[in-house]
Amino acid sequence: MKRLTLPPLEIRCPVHGAIAVDAAEAAIVDHRAVQRLRGVRQLGFSHLPFPGATHTRFSHSLGAMHLAGAAFDSVFRDQPFPTEARRLALRRCVRIAALCHDLGHAPYSHAAEFAMPPLRALGLRAYAPARVRARLDERAHHEDYTVAILTESSLQDAIQLHLGCSATHVAALISDDVGVPDDFFVQDGYDLRGLLSQLISSELDVDRLDYLQRDSLYTGARYGQIDATWLISHLARHVDDRNQVGLALDNRALYALDDFLLSRFHMFLMVYFHGKSVVYEEMLKRWVLESDTDLRLPAAAEDYLDTDDAWLWARLRASDSGWARRITRYAPYKVAFEEHGSAEQTALDRRVEALRHAGLDPIPSTAWGHVLGKGSGEKAPLYIIGETGRNEVEARTSARRLADLTPGRLGRPEGAGICRIYVAPEQLELARAQLAAVWQQQPLLLGS
């Protein structure tokens, strides 16, 4: 009688339905480093303007892992591998990279990233020295911590034990700065690392394909309702004249790509840059920079795993700083001025100076929304494959695609900005009067 094979673990997801996780992957999901993400909200302070947005980096990471498997299957649907074990090793590496891509996020996601130490303090041995030498004394970012957790914590041993790849291979798909000492990604003479990395981080990656849908669901906003299934089913690969393998998209999915790019842009302007979310982040910075709290995130990977939203909130609760009290008592600064578009920084600076001249304490903030991510011109191109015998291949970056799509302001490289000035609630009326006087070129209103 044939031995009964147990089905894979299934995790219920409100976005994707049942997410299948095999036993080897489950060992990584259950690791402390991944479980920590249950305590880090996906959208930081965005649950304040959007009460439903309490979802976590953990649920997002599971969704990204699920989409990574589907994307891998789509890209290699006509590619035979020498053995099933070889195919499974590459597929698992991609899925675990997607699962782990956010491991390094600080408490409240991006809000506390400014409290990270210099990159040098992390002591990352997985980085190729030539790639990071110029920024060793610059502040580390969450991707650096992700690589540190993968390669400098106990997670690396779990990956080595359970998967057909190493933690360095997983990290290499997340960061270009990681050096790969072997030919794990080479198949039939072609290096697949670039292609597989694009599934994790590019202008059309599983990270964005998941968070747009997930954030739309939990915030109640509708902008992120994209056709991810159609996009993934039309993913392919392309080999250029230099034998470099890159990510491609069948041109039948171009309208879905258009919708995806614009949806992301609108989510940034309407959700991620919401005025209340932004001011809480700004007050958090003020608390760290202007009080004696001396908050610094641990440099050691194992110690960093003890930090999450509750860790930071406890420190805010224990602080006698006015900024900490405003945050924990939900008494934020209010918007005295807001302008959408491409306002000049000098105009904003003039308003801020006028408020300071009146004895007020303004908090200026400028957020830029881009249809394309920052540094898009440096990313590997997304190839658009034509229908004529699938021989007409155009190496278009998303930036060029967008320029064709939106000849107006959305297609400009600088994107669209939201400029705001916040003041204490008790100073709001005076601030607005002061700003009105500046705008009308009237004498400044001094005093209260």
What's the overall average pLDDT, rounded? 87
* Helix share bin: 40-55%
Give the terminus-to-terminus CA distance: 88 Å
Can you summarize the main beta sheet? Answer: 4 strands, mixed
List the topology elements.
Blueprint: E1 9-13, E2 17-21, H1 23-29, H2 32-35, H3 57-75, H4 84-100, H5 129-132, H6 142-152, H7 155-162, H8 167-174, E3 186-187, E4 190-191, H9 193-200, H10 206-219, H11 228-233, E5 235-239, E6 245-250, H12 254-272, H13 275-290, H14 301-304, H15 309-318, H16 322-328, E7 334-341, H17 345-357, E8 363-369, E9 382-385, E10 393-396, H18 398-405, E11 416-423, H19 428-439
Parallel strand pairs: 6-9
Antiparallel strand pairs: 1-2, 3-4, 5-6, 7-11, 8-11, 9-10
Helix pairs in contact: 1-7, 3-4, 3-10, 4-8, 6-8, 10-12, 13-16
Task: Describe this entry's structure for a reader.
With 448 residues, this protein is an alpha+beta fold. The chain has 19 helices and eleven strands. Helices cover 44% and strands 12% of the residues. The chain starts with 8 loop residues before the first strand and ends in a 9-residue tail after the last helix. The chain has a domain at 9-240 and 247-298: Orthogonal Bundle (Hypothetical protein af1432), CATH 1.10.3210.10. The strands form four sheets. A four-stranded mixed sheet has the order 5-6-9-10. Strands 7-11-8 form a three-stranded antiparallel sheet, sandwiched between helices. Strands 1-2 form a two-stranded antiparallel ribbon.
